[in-house]
Amino acid sequence: MLRIQTKSPPLFEQGLPHNPRPANRYAGDYLILDRASEPFPPRDHWVDRARPTEPPLSYNDPGVNIDYFQRGLWRIDLGLAWHYALGRAFRISMCERTRGDAAGPVGGFAYGETSLAAMRRILTLAEACATDTFLDLGSGTGRFLLIAARLYDLEGTGVELLPTFVRNAQRIATRHAPRCQFVQADLFSVDWSGASLLYSNTTAFTDEGMARFSEKCGEIRPGARLVTVTRQPEHPDLIQVAYEMLEFSWGLSSVFVYRRR
Length: 261
What we know:
This protein is α/β, with parallel strands linked by helices. It contains 9 helices and 10 strands. The chain has a domain of 175 residues: Rossmann fold. The strands form 2 sheets. A 7-stranded mixed beta sheet has the order 6-5-4-7-8-10-9. A 3-stranded antiparallel beta sheet has the order 1-3-2, covered by helices on one side. The longest helix is centred in the middle third of the chain and has 14 residues.
């Protein structure tokens, strides 16, 4: 678990951020920037044996901790904490989706968070690189796209229906990820053909929503990669190239990576 003590002077000597506002939750004199990854089940239980891969990263891995500070990922989390401390993101999500016509055929849009370890693993499976144009379909608070932009210096667009999420994510992107932009739109109304890497958490999609999603996959350009969570699109030109079970805030879920032929 990554913690920053809020009352200890040595932190300033180390150049670490001091912010009395809680990040995801408050625990005594500590800011918990993200929840620790729980122990994974044995590897054979969650990795497709036909596609051997490295075990997922966790906050105990030195590489993750080094990147978290050296790549400035903590700045993004502190920016998000300023807007969404003490569970405000969940309350905003429920409130705005109740007021607006946000469900439709896609589904209930259950709110959840992706850990840094899962983000890193997904980007590795998708072979993300600096030349990619990343399209995050249903970007939520924008954390995934913002983290990816800091890690790979890639260009990206986040598509989200909820105006508060879009507005706050754009503010953070302006300061810490200038190659990112966030737009308020339905994921089916935007053009997918310009992206080389697409990501969508399809966990809460209905059957009708997945049917529309599968049809929309026809816009993906040849060679582009698509990542979905839990549910799989059905399109004849999509070739599955990777699969792995990763942990999210709601538990273990399947991650599928496709390449358009």
